[in-house]
Amino acid sequence: MSASPVVSVKDIELRFAGVTALSGVSFEVMPDELFAIIGPNGAGKTSIFNVLSGVYSPQVGSVEFDGQTLGKLKPHRIAHLGMARTFQNIELFENLDIVDNLMLGRHHHLGYGWPSAVAWLGRAKAAEIKNRERVEEIIDFLEIAAYRTLPVGLLPYGIQKRIELGRALAMEPKVLLLDEPVAGMNGEETEDMARFILDIKRELGIAMILVEHDMGLVMDIADRVMALDFGLPLVTGTPDVVQNHPEVIRAYLGTAQDEEAS
Fold first, then answer.
1. For burial by CB atoms within 10 Å, which of 23, 67, 134, 165 has the most?
2. Cβ-based neighbour number of residue 135 at 10 Å
């Protein structure tokens, strides 16, 4: 018996004041799958992430996550269900160290109130120790232990992006939304991030949805790819199928190729 999708998006349409951002978008993501979404600027990639994470509510269609229809659930409720997200622009607390930034991703695992936290006794102390142990495992997994005591604002850009990934992992998600994880990175940093993404898939078994402009990265690591253009899905399939599809080529290369072919 085949596994059920962990994410199922059905015919969503998203409009803003008469402007259609997404139309007829459908896809499924299976457990352990790395599913990528590509398209030119303005294609609707980030809009899909905002729908999945509850920032936007589509006017038409539905989103199911782990068998539950999300409807109009707020972002914090969706996060609690097990959907974590990284951001293209780094959103860390620069004055805090790595441990404190990653502990923020553990907030819904703590399970105690402020009186216990203030007293720092019993349940609160035990939970804090347990969650810090999990954070240390993630620090080792992402190979950032050498930087653990420094304010993250002082660290190299590539390391900060890795810490942002670590904070999402600290939530222990069922699905991880990766919003341009290698944007602004050099070649070496990109290779490192690609390795960690593949390690997450192989060792942690977390389903991932990737939005990325680096086509080399996408075609190397994605299991399946969906291409968008102006909010419309062009094709969904394996990397080989998608990168050779004429509509995808036209969307990326524009009219110049069309004029040469005519």
1. 165
2. 23
Distance CA(218)–CA(252), nearest Å, equals 15
Rounded to 5°, angle at Cα 95 from 92 and 99: 70
Name the residue among 245, 190, 185, 189 with its Cα closest to residue 221. 190
| Predicted local confidence at residue 160, as pLDDT | 95
Question: Residue 262 and residue 245: Cα distance in Å, rounded?
Answer: 18
* The predicted structure's pLDDT at residue 255: 44
The DSSP secondary-structure symbol of 213 reads S
CB of 176 within 8 A of CB of 211? no
Could you tell me where the beta strands, DSSP code E, fall in the chain? Answer: 7-16, 19-29, 34-38, 60-65, 68-69, 83-85, 175-179, 207-211, 224-229, 232-237
Give 117-171 pLDDT, tens digit per residue.
555 556 666 777 788 889 999 999 999 999 988 999 999 999 999 999 999 999 9
Contact indicator for 63, 26 with CB cutoff of 8 Å? no
pLDDT digits (tens, 9 = 90+) for 44-73: 899 999 999 999 999 999 999 998 999 889
Token duo for residue 147:
């930087």
Judge contact between 55 and 229, C-beta under 8 A: no
Report residue 121: phi and psi, to 5°.
Answer: -130, 160
At a CB cut-off of 8 Å and minimum separation 6, what does 18 contact? none
Task: For residue 149, give both structure tokens.
Answer: 């005591």
Name all domains of the chain by residue range, CATH numbers in brackets. 1-82+173-262 (3.40.50.300), 94-169 (no CATH)
Average pLDDT over residues 174-203: 94
Distance CA 188, CA 126 (A): 40
